[in-house]
Amino acid sequence: MIKLKVILVTTAFGIVALSGCKNTVQKNGKDKFENQTVKEINASIYGDYVSDCYANRDEGYDWVAVSIKPAGENKISLSVRSRADKKNPTCTFDAIFYKQNDNLYQTLIDGKEVLLTIQNQSIKLNTKEASDSGILSFYCSGGASLAGLYTKIDGELDRSQIDKTLFSKFLELQGIAFRISSVQNDSCRMLSIAPLGLELDNRVENVAIDGRVIDAEIEDLNSDGSPEVLIYTCSDGSGSYGDVVAYSVNNKKSMSRIYFEPVAQNTKIKPGYMGHDEFALVERSLVQRFPIYKAGDSNANPTGGIRQIEYKLEDGEACRRFVVKQISEYK
């Protein structure tokens, strides 16, 4: 018997805000990448945090876990999962938090400021304004809320009880929605993109991916009245090579895959490339950036600065594709 439902944490950055069914991505354009001061993140915050009832899980209590992983400069990847062996998960959420200072991370959800506070071996989630606290119940069932205190544990979570979903997010724009999720199959990791609201074809697209999903965004990149959805992935291992899986909606009737050329195949941008990519939508462009490695650089210490690439969505002969429009380098 489930005796208690407590819940947990989520999402992004003061300038970039993510929501859910109401998941309209709010952004303040260029601030995603430009004029950022690098704020080094203390690696001690990475790991798993749990609600109080985790200690009583063998007695049937419900519990929630928060997993924090690195996601690039100034940000962390945060995954929320709950018990799923005896009931449907109480809460499922994935997003990016952006660092404000050593103890504070921030996001906007539907225009409401949400704070993630680091407290020694615990994390706390709450809204800046008490009157906005209801937004933290949106991602939970049974009257639970994301708000609360979660304590770090040593070792691995109880994998026999926790929800096996690796990533989950719901995005909506212009009357079209996408439910994005990834799971681990026996042989590979699968990414699923399930559209909702298309007039002719709402078939789910399943794509095998190398590594894990970092985040997903939605925008009308070509201003045709129908959205594009982009999912950013990162390979496992020290290289952390990034990729983009993207789909474009065709006049709100169906969707088609967008081609994204791997860096290794583009001679203009690949010199010095060894992964560690970051991606973001900035206004109506896809922006990618990564460190530049010089000969002799170790994987952990690139010395060539940063390369940033701006892509525009264009129609191709067989499909839409991302085309390089601008390449910038800076120290």
From TrEMBL:
Domain of life, source organism:
Bacteria
Under Pfam families, the record lists:
PliI
InterPro entries in the cross-refs: PliI, PliI_sf
In Swiss-Prot or TrEMBL terms, this protein is called PliI/PliC-like inhibitor of I-type lysozyme
Organism, by scientific name, is: Ancylomarina salipaludis
